[in-house]
Every structure is written in C-alpha cells, then in structure tokens.
Amino acid sequence: MLTEALTFISMDWIKPLAKKLKGIRDERINEINRIADTFGDPRPLARYYVEPKCQHYNPADHHEDEEPITSVKMPIFMYINGFLSKEVATRDGRTQMFILADAGMGKTSLLVMLKLTHLLAFWPQGYDCLLLKLGTDTLEMVRKHTNKANTVLLLDALDEDPNAWGNIEQRLIELLHETGNFRRVLISCRTQFFPETGADPFGNSGRVTVGGFICPVIFLSLFDDLQVHDYLCKRFPDPWHYELTGRKNKQRLRAEKLLKSMRSLRFRPLLLAYIKDLLDADRSQWDEYAIYDALTETWLLREVGKLAKQGIRLTKEDLWISCTAVAVYLQSLGKRVLSQAELRSLVVGLPVIAHIEKLDFGGRSLMNRTSNREYRFSHYSTQEFLVVHAIVERQLEAVKRICPAATREVKLRATVQMLDFARCRFAGTDRLEFLKLLDWSDINPSQFAGWLRFQEHLRDGSEGPEMVMIPGGRFLMGSPPDEPERRDNERQHEVKVASFTLGKYAVTFGEYDRFASANRREKPKDEGWGRERCPVINITWFDAMAYAEWLSQQTGQQYRLPTEAEWEYACRAGTATPFYFGETISTDQANYDGNYTYGGGQKGGYQGKTVEVGQFPANAWGLHEMHGNVWEWIGSEYNGDYGGAELCTVGDSNSGGPRVLRGGSWLYGPKWLRSAARIGFDPRIRDYNVGFRLARTLTL
Fold it and tell me: What is the domain partition of the chain in residue ranges?
C-alpha cells in the first residue's frame, strides 16, 4: 500500500546526484547518451541546477521590470513529490499535470532532473520513469510501454509537437485519453501555446478542465535574487583559500553586475545557463533580442576558431548565414530537426552550409545533433531568433532563395517568442511589415500574451483612426448548434482570414465631423448624447463608404469597411464562446439593454444611449466595444448564408440590397451582441443605433 512517505524527488539529492552522474560507467551510460541526444548534456545541468519555485498563477500576468512578482510560491520538488506520492481514487485527469512557463524558464531541465533521479536509483523501488519529447511517434511509444500503473510519464514541449500546431485542444484530449493508465503524467508546455481552458468546477485555482478531464496545472516562477546568487555561486565558486582572505571570485562579481543591468531578464534560467558567454560579449544595453544576438555571435566566433584549427577558413558571417538558412528552412516547414538529406539540398544553394557538419556540438553549443545524426537547435528559441534576425537585417528573401524551391513561397510560421524578439527592434510601420512576412494561421489568437505589448507605437503617422493589427489565421465563423439564441443565418464554417488592421474604436463624431466639414456635408444628429469621442450615429452605409474613400485620399492608406469574416474573427480574438468575455456578458463589459439576460447571466443597468468609445474593456487584441454601443456597418452585402462574407469586395455600391450589421447596440439585448449575431439592414437608412468601424488592407 502506498503511503505519504514515498519520496520521488528532493533537493537534498542534487549534490550526490551530480557526483554519481560524473562517475557513471555501467549500462546506464546509454540512457544518459539518449537523454543528451534529445535534451542536451545532463551533466552540467546536474552540476549547476537550482531548484525553481512554482505557483498557481501565470507570472506573465504581472509587470516585473524590477522584481519578480509577489505571490504564493513553493519549491517545485516539494510540489511534484506530493503529486507523485499521493493516492488518487479517480482517473478523471487528476493524475495528469501540466507544467507551464515561458521560453527559457527551465521546463525541460526540470523533467530531465526528474528522469536523472530515477535513472540513478534515488526513487523508491518498483517505479519506472519514461521521458519523451512530444512528437508524431509519442502515442506509439506510450502504448508500447509496459508497467504503466507504476510508471511516471514525462512529456516535454507540447508547444513543439507538430501534431498540436493548429490542433492543440484535440491533441491534448488525445494525450490525456492515451496516458490515463500511467501512475502520473507531467506535460510541459509554453504558457502562450496552452489553450484557453475551463475553470475547475470546484473553484480550485490549481486545476483546469480539458475535454472533460480535470487536471492540475502549475506555473514555474521566475527566479528571485537569492536563486540567482545560488546559481552564480555554483557556476563561479570561490577557491577554498579565498575564505581565509575574504576574497571573492572575480567572474562571479562581474556576472552579478551584468545581471543587475538586465532587470527582470536576470531571473530566467536560460539566461543564467549562458552567463559565461554573456560575460565574454562586451555590451552595455540588454533586451531579449540583444541577449540572443550576443549568445549567437559568441558561439559562432568560438566555432570559427575551432574550424580554423581544422584548416577550414570561414568567417563568422559565413556561419551566421548558414545557421540562418537552416532556421528559415525549418520554420517554413514547421519543423525542429534537419535530416542529412535536407542538409544536402540546402548545400546546393549555399555550399558553405556543408561546414555545419564540422561544428563542435558540445554542452554549450546552440546547435546539436540527435542519435539519428539529425541537426537541431539546442533551444527552439534560437531558431526563432535567427528567423527574426534575418528579417531585422533584411536577409530573409536572400536566405529563402537558398532554400529548396518548395519552400520559397511558404510564409514562415509565427510564434509568440518571435513577437517578443520583434518588439525589441520594430516600431510603427516596421511592425506592420513584420506582420506581413509571417504566417499566423496555426496559432490561436488568444495565445498572444504579448500581442498588446506588440501593439505599442503602432501609429503610422497618418491622420486616420488608431488601428490595431490583426494577424491572419483560421477560425470557425458562426455559432455552434447548441449556442443559446442561435439563429439560422449563423451556420458555423471554417474561414481563413488574411492579416489586416481594424479600428481600435468605432469612428467617432469628432473624426466624422472633420470629413463632413471638408466636404460641406450635413453633420449627422447626435441625439443630444455628445459628439467628439462618442461613436458617430445616424449615418447610412453610403456615408460610411464615402468617409473611408475620403480618408484614404487624405492619408494615402487603403481604408474600407471590414468584411463579415474579418469583423467576427477580430471580435472573437481567438475565443469560441458567444462573447469574447465568455459564455455570458454583463453591463460592466458592454453598453446594451441590461433588462434582458443571456445564458444565466445577471440583469444590469440600461443607459439608454451611446457612450464615449473606450469606456468598456477591450478584447484580447485591444479592440473596444465590439459588443454593444452601436451596430457597425460591414462592407459585404447581406446574404442569409454568408454569401460574400469572406470577400473584401463590397459589390455594387449603388445596389439597394441590404448590408450587414454586426455587434449589437445600446438599445438591444445581449443575444444580439454575440460574436456570431448578424442582421441585414437597408444601406440608405440613418438610425441612432448604427455607426461603423474602419478596416485597412495590408499590402505586400
């Protein structure tokens, strides 16, 4: 019978584990080599490992430029040991835990340390441990494994699993079903990649629901200054005789000074792992892009020197373009590893790439090889950085010409980490250009934790309204059959939307009045509710079209009304619920008639008029009042079965056929505010419920 006394992991084991690992000589060396092939050399990891802490809330939800966030934390080994040792009566997901963190926070290192403690016989007898990198063959390997009931299964990097790209929730449910017979399962994933899930029905902040499973979830915390100091002491220890004189290791003192200048970046384990390389790179200003730039340059300079000893004369620039070509090729195909055959195909376009075979794939190498002699970057973020670097340095098209013809027309798969790199180097219209170069279709928009930060300083200098970039992608347009108040004209179907920009707010009276004055048009009535920041009302569809045409002439931009597909895609911002706030909506979230309820929501107030734009919370993409305040004209003609909903063309502007309205208004109940709700309206009529919001095409 299992008891609470079982211990699977303890910080007390780390020092003897490192010594034991150093002297390993028996058959377990093959398993160590297998770990090294897939996850990197575990020996330096064990020697310098510092136990992280964990918490139930995402650290990225807090601003932490100066200090890591203050929240309830506990040592991760203590938490995991409790998870592994306790008896669980039900198999409804409570034996399968998610470990979430941003890139470079130590998710893989944690799982490798768990495997090492098992491999070096620290675990209780009779228990097995299986460590796998998630991929196309994972389920086959899981099914073949014996003694599942006494095996702890460790599945690393869900965000790098090709079967999860664009299909994350289905992949999760598949994994949870197939691994339910294991004693325990730990699945690591980048926080931004993990899908929006349901809350625990019992209100437990440390659990989520996924497809009927109730699973524990934990976030790795950023290091604090004490943990950083602990690591530096292990990495740069004082010789024994320094204790007699009170001297300190000079490299450690330099490292401490350098890290202090990096603000919150110093709390990331990945940065600490390369601290020696950063010390060798003489820079004063650091951000994420600069750090990876320095790490890459330092590594390539080291490789240039090693190749020179072999009689191979190459420059740092030669190796940089070679590694960039590999990164661009892999990213264009959504891959992590490069086979020998693929390497040979790249050599045709760039012969210098052949020298990648001569690189020294050691413990601190940014690129390594698997046991199948395939090439991969040691950390996926290095691959992502090299792609962004190619865009920054305007080398992307030149690099893509090197790649096989099949990949030249393929846009590069975008990631959240690439957003963070780009944010350090791009502003304004440059961010628009960056957006157009990438393919966002495999990413759920709600995963863009850094999207609002990326929107900063987007204004392109034109006199038009403030616009928000909307990355193209696929989504289910319409409402599912079981959605309350669903109407027959909301048939659900998949749509692909190209990248575009959309107004952060509905067009205001202040903006429209300038157009009316310039063109000697009659200014629309405001019903006594205010002008300037209030959304313009009492305008026809033709008025909205005329304003878009005038603004385009004034600014040189291509303003227009959005299509139905664009509007709903932007409104949802990655959500699949009736409202972008969830299953219900309240009058604290939108301006509508709160005398009506929806989906069990509460009744609220009724303002009886429009309000100034920006008064209610934005969705995940920073768009305000997509629900309520005013109905918004859409460019497309109304068709009960979405005819023309996906097209940017608006048909015959002289046609008297109905146009689409979206979003609901202050006068309507919540069922009309749903993301999928749509009505047709005579384009010639002016109404105090109706306004509009502008879109703008991104041209290549």
Answer: 11-220, 225-280, 288-427, 459-697
In order, the DSSP letters of 59-125 are GGGS--SSSPPPS--EEHHHHHHHHHHS--S--SSTTEEEEEE-TTSSHHHHHHHHHHHHHTT-SPT
Q: Which residue has the tokens 């306004």?
A: 691
Residue 528's region, left for phi above 0, alpha for psi from -120 to 50, else beta, is left
Rg of the chain's alpha carbons, rounded to an integer? Answer: 28
The DSSP H or E segment spanning 634 is strand 631-637
Cα 330 from Cα 583, distance rounded (Å): 39
**Which residues pair with residue 413 across a beta bridge?**
439
DSSP secondary structure, 297-334, as one string:
HHHHHHHHHHHHHTT----HHHHHHHHHHHHHHHHHHT
Q: How far apart are the first and last CA of the chain?
A: 66
Nearest CA among 254, 123, 239 for reference residue 184: 123
Res 282: pLDDT: 67
96 in Cβ contact with 176 (< 8 Å) = yes
Contacts of 571 (CB under 8 A, 6+ apart): 580, 619, 623, 626, 627, 662, 663, 675
β pairing state of 631-637 and 690-692? parallel
Q: Give the integer Cα–Cα distance in Å for 400 and 66.
A: 40
- CATH of span 11-220: 3.40.50
What the block records as the tokens of 221 is: 């915390």
Per-block mean pLDDT, blocks of 10 residues, the chain (700 long): 64 81 73 85 90 83 42 86 86 90 87 93 91 93 94 92 81 93 93 68 71 90 91 89 78 86 77 83 77 87 86 88 90 86 86 81 69 78 91 81 59 79 76 72 56 52 74 88 92 88 94 94 95 96 95 90 95 91 93 91 89 93 94 92 68 69 96 96 96 83
CATH (one of 3.40.50.2000, 3.40.50.2300, 2.30.30.240, 3.90.1580.10) for 459-697: 3.90.1580.10
Containing 564, the helix (H) or strand (E) segment is helix 564-572
